Amino acid sequence: MQRQNMIHILIKLLYSLLISIVAFAMSVHAETAAQHYRYAEHLFESGDYQAARLAYKRLLFYDPDTEFRDVADYRIAQSYYYQNEPTRAEALFRDFSTEHPNSRLRFQSELMLGQLHFDAGAYALARTTLFELLHTTNDPEVVEAAHYLRGWCYIRTSDWNKAISELRQADVSYTDGHRGKKARELASILLAETPLPTKSPQMAGWLSTIIPGTGQLYAGKIREGLLAAALNGTFIYLAADAIRERRYVDCIGISLIGWRFYWGNRTEAQRFATEHNARHKQALIETLNRQAEMSAP
Hints:
This protein is an all-alpha fold.
C-alpha cells in the first residue's frame, strides 16, 4: 500500500514537472515570436522593406500559427508595394481578405487594391473597388481614405464636381484626421479654379476650315494664327491668279501644295486647342499636388 502511494506521488510530480516544462516552452516560444515580430516591425518602419519582408517570412516559417500572422502577411504585401512591385503586391492584397476574413486589416488591404489601380491609371476600376469598400465597412479611417482617393480619381479624369463631392465626404467622414484637412483644402481649390477655361478642338477645327488661322487665334495662338492666315491666303491668291491667267496646270500644282497647308492648318488648330486644355488641367493638378504635399504632416 505504501509502495502504491509512493508511485502515485511520483506520477503526480512527473505530471506537474511536464506541465511546467510545456508552459515554460510555450512562454519562451511566445516571447521569441514577439521579439521576431518587433524586429520585423522595426525594419519596416525604418524603410528597409526587403529585410523586413524576410523577417516577417522567417516569423511565419517558424511559427505558422502566430498571432501576428495577419499583420505579417499585410506587411509583406506592403513591402512589395513600396519597392515598386505592384503585381506581387496586388496578388497578396487580393488574397488577404480570403486568408484573414476577420482581420482588422482586411479593409486596409482592399483600400490598397484601390491605390494600386489608381497608381496604374485605371481610375474607373479604382473608383469601383473603393465604392465596394465603402459599402462593406464603417471604419472611419478607411472611409475617409476611400473618399479621398476617389476624389483624386475624379480629378485625374477632369470630373471636377464629383471630385469636390468625394473630397467633401472625406472631410466630413467620421474622423478629424489629417486627410480630412487635406480634402477640405483641395475641395476649396477646385471650387475656386473650376470650371477650367477650356477650348473646343472641334470648334477650333471648323473655324480654321472656314477661315484659315481663326482656329489658332481661338486656341490662343496669335502668331501661329496670323502665319496660317497669311500662308493660306497666299496660296489662295496664287491659285486665283493662275485661274485668271488661264494657267490651269499651275493652278492644279499650287492647289495640291496649298491643300496640304490648308488641311494642316485645320489639324494644327485642333491640336492647339487640345494642348490648351491639357496645360490648364496639368497646372491645376500640379497645384493640388503641391497643396497636398504642403499639408502633409
